Amino acid sequence: MSLILSTDNLTKKFKSKTAVNQVSIHVERGEVYGLIGRNGAGKTTLLRMISNLACPTSGSYTFYDENGANNDAMWGRVGVLIEDPGIFQNLSAIQNLKAKALAAGINNDQYLLDLLNFVGLPNVGKKPVKNFSLGMRQRLGIAIAMVNSPDLLILDEPINGLDPQGIAEVRSLIHRLCTEKGITIIISSHILEELSKVADRYGIIHEGVLLSETSKEELMEQCKPVLYMNTSDNQKARIVLSDMGISDFKVFNDHIEIRERTKEGGAISMALAKADIQTLEMRQEGQSLEDYYFRLTGGAKNA
Amino acid sequence: MLNIFRMHMYRVSKAKSTIVLLIVMIACLFIRFGLAHLVFDDPLNLEFVSVFASGNSQSSALTPSQVNTWCIQASNSLIICLTIFSVIFANCDFTRGFAKNTYSLYKSRTPLVMGKWASLMTCITAVYVVFSFFSLAFCALLLPAFESKRWGEYIRGWIVLYILLISMMTLVFFITNRFKSPAGGMVIGILIATGTFQTVERLIDVLIARASGESLLDAFAGKGNAFRLSDYCLDNVYISYSPSMGTGDTVRTVLVALVYGGLALFLAVWLSKKQDVRC
Predict the structure, then answer these.
(1) 8 Å CB contact of B15 and A144
(2) Confidence band for A1, pLDDT divided at 50, 70 and 90
(3) Which of A187, A237, A285, B26 is 20 to 30 A from B59, comparing alpha carbons?
(4) Cβ pair B3:A75 closer than 8 A
(5) Residue B10: which of A54, A85, A102 has the nearest Cβ?
């Protein structure tokens, strides 16, 4: 896959506080990039800079076209939903879409109606947006962000304040945007479990610093359960494990870590016993996404 | 820029505040018509107003340029309404957060600011043209004191007043855009309309004149050769402009308006490039 956006040491300072500190992220075309961080970690500031709403103190960012070339025309191909949807409350949904469409140089009412259908707001008619529920506003916000047929959609905390049904609707919408329209999406959230349901890659940001950029596979690998064993002869146990066809394990002086077939602790123990190796200790440990995140960010569970 | 212009014209056409302000402005205009009827069609009232206003009596004829002065320039409520409209217009997409949708579309902020300014000025122009036309038509058709003469003076005055209005509203646009403060823009508009700044400027004029060795009487009368700050202040230039002014004063008036308007627009564009969008 080719890059659609990269940032190079993007930094934003507010007086003495550094909100974003030399962040370099790399977003590939077609993926859903999840930006994880606690409240105040710098996610929104980073996304505001990428969306041209805030001026970086230093550093830069670049959009790339389908050919991987740095292309200024990509500026018109970015859709943004930062925090609350930016909508005129007294106007109807279609009028809000029309306003954005005119700004983008689009004059096609049928296209706007199709967009409303796509986000699940087909029958809102002339109802003013101020009478919409939070979930409807959020979906309208996504529709407004999509008016200019973006290649890249930037969604900042799109599920904030939504009820479980609203969250599921937005999640389903994100899936459809990615699969049906092939839009690259950057989505930020402090709710790790929700993000893990949609994102392909993750950027973990903490106190303005990007701690890690990792793929879903790498993250899952990090969070895979591990079988910890201690036996009377760990070196001899190595042969037994290999004979059983287990290859993903590491032998240490005082224990063995097995990362595959972790649910077969009983069978492994039996095989060791047949080889006159006594199992002294056996426990399975799994690291949840949250555990991984907290370990990375250094602790306190206030994300 | 054209796209942004069209977007702002569209949202203005759908906004309730536009209709409310238009109704208020029309009401203000009718009040001015009523006052014009009272003043110009009654010689006693005209004499009272003329003496009260300038110490000189004036002709009882109501010329087209006097209509413009009376119904547009001297109408404080119209200026206040236009200021409120400009402030709401300049601030609306920021307070509603809609600016987030448009700022992400363009790399440069110049078309965003210029498109918005152009649409605001189109609205101001439309109001000015319509109000000028209706006030002239009303006075011509309904006031016996109206005399159709001195049209050259009317056209010159109409253009100068238009430039002054555009310049003032550009200043309001800049202040609102820069500080994202509706209150700031409105306060400035109201202070201009009520002549509060003018009092301060005149006081500074007197101080300068006294420092230059002029007598207190001359200083208050604005006579003598001392520098007068108020001659270069937009609000004073607007209030004191008269279509019967000499060419030199008219040129100064236009230049002051162009400098203020041009500078305000330049600063609005230039500073927007360095400013975060807060909405």
Answers:
(1) no
(2) low
(3) B26
(4) no
(5) A102
CA dihedral A138, A143, A146, A149 (to 10 degrees): 170
Neighbours of A82 (CB within 10 A): 27
ipTM score: 0.77
Number of domains in chain B: 1
From the CB of residue B167, how many other CB atoms can be counted at a distance below 10 Å? 23
Separation between Cα atoms, residue B66 and residue B135, nearest integer Å:
11
Does residue A186 sit at the B interface (CB-CB below 8 Å)? no
Residue A194: pLDDT band by 50, 70, 90 thresholds? confident
Identify the structural domains of chain A with CATH numbers, from first to last. 3-215 (3.40.50.300), 224-286 (3.30.70.270)
Is residue B104's pLDDT more than 80?
A: yes
Q: Is residue B104 part of a domain?
A: yes
- The reply to whether B95 touches chain A by the CB within 8 Å rule is no
A12 to chain B, closest Cα gap in Å: 11
Interface check B180 vs A, CB under 8 A = no
Would you place residue B54 in the very low, low, confident or very high pLDDT band (cuts 50, 70, 90)?
very low
Would the pLDDT of B241 be above 50? yes
Mean pLDDT of chain A, nearest integer:
84
Cβ atoms of A33 and A203 closer than 8 Å: yes
- The range of the structural domain enclosing residue B265 comes to 2-194+241-272
